[in-house]
Amino acid sequence: xxxxxxxxxxxxxxxxxxxxxxxxxxxxxxxxxxxxxxxxxxxxxxxxxxxxxxxxxxxxxxxxxxxxxxxxxxxxxxxxxxxxxxxxxxxxxxxxxxxxxxxxxxxxxxxxxxxxxxxxxxxxxxxxxxxxxxxxxxxxxxxxxxxxxxxxxxxxxxxxxxxxxxxxxxxxxxxxxxxxxxxxxxxxxxxxxxxxxxxxxxxxxxxxxxxxxxxxxxxxxxxxxxxxxxxxxxxxxxxxxxxxxxxxxxxxxxxxxxxxxxxxxxxxxxxxxxxxxxxxxxxxxxxxxxxxxxxxxxxxxxxxxxxxxxxxxxxxxxxxxxxx
Length: 324
Known about the structure:
FAD/NAD(P)-binding domain; alpha/beta; about 325 residues; 2 domains
């Protein structure tokens, strides 16, 4: 039996849950569908750059956002979305286990970082192995690090780590770095950066945390490097197969959005890492999720002939103005 909602949100990361909070507060029926709770938040054992929070963790923030959403009577299920199509009543969402319809949709499926595919990689995730240099480089002040990756991802990682770490091994398979020539020139001048071309990472080892990596060059020669942290910057995967026929996707595989999370489809809005937002950060995802949620609410309100929420939405109590 098909279940009907006014708005459905796909994804329970910071963008999806923020969208859900702002939708559910408007007392419209809202369902969040996600494979898991938190998405990439689960890769963050220490969270110290989220405004208003001195020290937390990604999983804790995810649970907090979930509790906020559920407090406003929103609904949530854990399932995988297989296909979204237009229907007479709006949009139909087919999952592994059920089918739903809605008048408007918020996409916040996030992304998944590509890994190296070597033994013990998952064991040391967040225990010395990281996939977001922007997020975790500050934890490696004056420590020895290595970074491996491709193109601009690797260059950016090398630059960021060179400002924090005492030593950076920059490892890449090719004979020369590819990407922005000015950034390459800057990296080559860094005294604490050692370039290691024509090389791959073969093994990683440690006790409770990462302690060393084994590298292998094109000639088959192996070498062990003692490191405190390894940053893997191989890009990310965004799965949009279930909806790419309804929205515009750019060359990077991201959903093209404009102000308020608008997509090429009038009833579909999007937010978070799966979109073309400039900064892939938690606080940015939360803000864009809230905007996309309000845009979806405005869409269904206008369908009812109601004005919706203005961009400068506020509520006045006495002489005090509250902005939401």
